[in-house]
Write a structure and sequence with these properties.
A: 5-stranded mixed sheet, 42% helix, 19% strand, elongated, B: two-stranded antiparallel ribbon, 6 helices, 63% helix, 3% strand
Chain lengths: 185, 153
């Protein structure tokens, strides 16, 4: 004779399975992509994920591919991020240095931010480097960004050669960016 | 008299404006939108810097006399549709409402079918074929009567 589980046991099993499925889904969604860091740890330089984003100042958009052939310091920031305030003047100084002779650029990407606040931030610090906007956080996912600010150094061939989770400092820029600027094009 | 009428005429639109504004409150909106960085509803994200900035933005819009729907539209324009805790019930987003309802119906149906099967099996187990026939004495009580007769108590 066939034996059937009680309906309460079936309901409990369905509930538990649904909860486990939700937990697995949540974990899969919240785990950041560490592919870039893992590649750097193996001594490999991954190609910088391509993206196009609107210019923060309004009017048109730009792509990371537009900067190919230059050294790019790609900096993810937001106006509500306190450490971003500390590093912005340093990045602006380095942008002036990098853009001499068209060798490179700092490229800012404002993320998950109110655009008006971001424009106020740029005006407050008088930042001259190009700024893109990623209001929905789409570009963040491609680079596995989890903290603010985060910076990726991209060489002339479009490969990520260094990253910094947290604010950059003069030493990081000297160690990771200066050699790329001095290398022959 | 004329002066009083003019003053009344000037005051009336201002009163109407004051009654129309604000159209919503920060508390009313923050339950229905997300803090994108925190990944939680804005109402639950109290300390996060991005949540604080988002609240300031909402408050500015509320002070500008925007309605809840207008505030939510502005937030979606800044942060994308994911900022809405409950997506609009149209197009593909309709799936967010239809699929849970279908899941509840299917789950309820499955539990109902399992309950019917379980009852059927239970009834079959309790049925006349398995137990003693109606009017027949249970085997235990027959043995007890035989023992009582044997000992003549």
């Amino acid at each position: 004779m066939k034996r059937f589980l009680s309906p309460f046991a079936v309901a409990a099993m369905i509930g538990v399975l649904a909860l486990v499925a939700l937990l697995v889904y949540g974990l899969a969604q919240s785990t950041p992509d560490r592919g870039i860091e893992e590649a750097l740890a193996r001594g490999e330089a991954k190609r910088a994920p391509d993206f196009t984003a609107p210019n923060l100042s309004g009017g048109g958009s730009s792509s990371i591919a537009d900067f190919r052939g230059k050294v790019v310091v790609l900096n993810f920031w937001a106006s509500w991020c306190e450490p971003c305030r500390d590093e912005s003047p340093l990045l602006d100084r380095w942008h002036a240095k990098m853009s001499e002779g068209g060798r490179g650029t700092v490229l800012g990407v404002d993320v998950l931010d109110v655009s008006g606040d971001a424009r106020d931030f740029v005006a407050e610090f008088g930042l001259d480097y190009p700024m893109l906007r990623d209001g929905e956080g789409e570009v963040l996912g491609r680079y596995g960004v989890v903290a603010y600010p985060e910076t990726f150094v991209i060489d002339r061939r479009g490969r990520i050669v260094a990253t910094r989770r947290g604010p950059v400092d003069e030493k990081f820029m000297r160690d990771e960016v200066q050699p790329l600027l001095e290398a022959p094009a | 008299m004329l002066l009083a009428a003019m003053m009344l005429g000037l005051a009336a639109p201002a009163t109407a404006l004051a009654q129309d504004c604000p159209k919503t409150t920060l508390g009313d909106v923050e339950d229905e939108v997300m803090c994108p960085v925190c990944g939680t509803p804005l109402g639950l994200a109290t300390e996060a810097p991005q949540a604080i900035r988002e609240r300031e933005f909402i408050q500015r819009l509320v002070d500008d006399c925007q309605s809840k729907e207008q505030v939510k539209t502005r937030l979606a324009a800044e942060f994308g549709d994911d900022v809405l805790a409950l997506p609009e019930a149209e197009g593909f987003n309709l799936a967010a409402y239809v699929i849970p309802a279908l899941a509840v119906l299917l789950g309820g149906g499955a539990v109902g079918v399992a309950a019917l099967q379980w009852r059927r099996v239970k009834r079959a187990g309790d049925g006349p074929g398995d137990g003693p026939a109606a009017g027949a004495k249970p085997a235990g009580s027959e043995r007890l009567e035989r023992d009582l007769e044997r000992y003549d108590l």
